[in-house]
Design goal:
It is built from seven helices and 14 strands. It is an alpha+beta fold. The longest helix has 18 residues. The mean pLDDT is about 95.
Length: about 325
């Protein structure tokens, strides 16, 4: 019997599911939204909200999924809200902007960006994935209140999931920015390439990454970014996993790639350092992936997944 095209020797069938922000069971109904969905959701008592002030989520007593009563005092902008989906029970989840500053917070309440919520383990699993979607859509809405073509105001359509210009009537759709993040492997010497960005924790190294440019394949983006940042030429490229990254609306596309050269000539404007690491060095660094003194990307980050799966690959 011929092997299935879906068979793989990777350590996990779908490693994306093991990254932070990836689990989201909401029914998005992307092709089946109506113009009345948002108003209907706002009229129902079982609708719950993710509320954002200047990109930070309101977390009340540890809760990020809030009731209307929780947010009504903060002037929620329902005219520019959006449904992000529905639960299995049919309850809507809505993302909305509020007017709230740090000094207005009550004891036990916080305004936190999605990265802080993830890194402090305040949310996990399905709720963390819903938060990522809500944060990305909220950021897109706030950047699309006015049409980029003619400058007129835009208005929500399809439950807020797209917006239409009130002037030229152009439709605007949610934005996703693709980024390749790649583990470069020197198979002959059984080692991988990592670099250090200036904003990393003091001793931390991670995989290289960069935005996919218009008119560029994922594979070519991996090759270009790797060469630009490290001077290493790349041959074969294999997709491995992806991760929603709501800072503000990025999709991380994780790849494993083959190094054709080994002499590093890194871009000192992008990186503080770049070097090869043996399996043993990577395994030791992954033991120290939490806290401000971490040596590797934290668990849940796709860079951590790429490194761990390289070690575990059979």
């Amino acid at each position: 019997m011929s092997p299935s095209i879906f068979e793989t020797s990777a350590p996990h069938d779908e490693p994306s599911r093991l990254t932070a922000f990836a689990i989201n069971t909401l029914d998005r109904r992307s092709e089946h939204r109506t113009e009345g969905d948002l108003q209907e959701a706002l009229s129902k008592s079982d609708t719950l909200f993710f509320a954002f002030s200047k990109g930070n989520a309101l977390v009340k007593q540890g809760r990020s999924l809030l009731t209307l009563k929780d947010i009504e005092q903060f002037e929620p902008d329902f005219d520019n809200a959006a449904i992000i989906g529905w639960t299995n029970e049919g309850s809507a989840r809505v993302t909305v902007s509020i007017k709230l500053d740090e000094e207005q917070l009550k004891e036990g309440d916080q305004l936190l960006n999605p990265r802080s919520i993830y890194s402090n383990n305040l949310l996990t699993g399905d709720l963390l994935g819903q938060l990522a979607q809500a944060a990305s859509i909220n950021a897109w809405i706030n950047s699309t209140l006015f049409c980029g073509v003619c400058g007129h105001k835009t208005k929500p359509r399809a439950g807020g999931y797209n917006r239409q210009c009130t002037g030229c009537e152009k439709l605007h759709f949610p934005r996703t920015d693709p980024v390749v993040i790649m583990l470069i492997i020197d198979e002959k010497n059984d080692r991988c390439l990592m670099g250090r960005s200036p904003h990393f924790a003091t001793q931390m190294y991670s995989t290289l990454a960069g935005f996919v440019e218009p008119g560029e394949t994922i594979e070519d983006a991996v090759r270009r970014e790797t060469f630009e940042e490290s001077g290493i030429k790349v041959g074969r490229v294999r997709y491995h996993a992806s991760q929603p990254w709501p800072m503000p609306h990025t999709l991380m596309i994780g790849c494993i790639a083959e190094a054709l050269t080994t002499e590093i000539d890194y871009d000192s404007e992008e990186l503080e350092d770049c070097r090869w690491f043996s399996r043993e060095e990577v395994a030791e660094r992954l033991k120290h992936s939490e806290g401000e003194d971490r040596l590797s990307p934290p668990k849940g980050a796709i860079a951590h997944r790429l490194l761990q799966d390289w070690l575990d690959w059979t």
